[in-house]
Amino acid sequence: MKRKDLLSIYSLTPDEIRELLDRTKLLKKWLKENVSHKPLDGKTLGMIFHKPSTRTRVTFEVGMYQLGGQALFLSGAEIQLGRGETVSDTALVLSRYLNGVVMRTFKQSDLEEFAQKATIPLINGLTDISHPCQVLSDIFTLEEKFDSIKGIKVAYVGDGNNVANSWLFGALKTGINLSIATPDNYSIDPDILKKAKALEGKSEGSFKIFTDPVKAVKEADVVYTDVWTSMGKESERLEREKVFRPYQVNWDLLKHASKDVLVMHCLPAHRDEEITSEVMDSKNSVIFDQAENRLHLQKSILEALLG
Question: Which GO cellular component terms, listed alphabetically, does the Swiss-Prot or TrEMBL entry include (predicted)?
Answer without folding.
Answer: cytoplasm
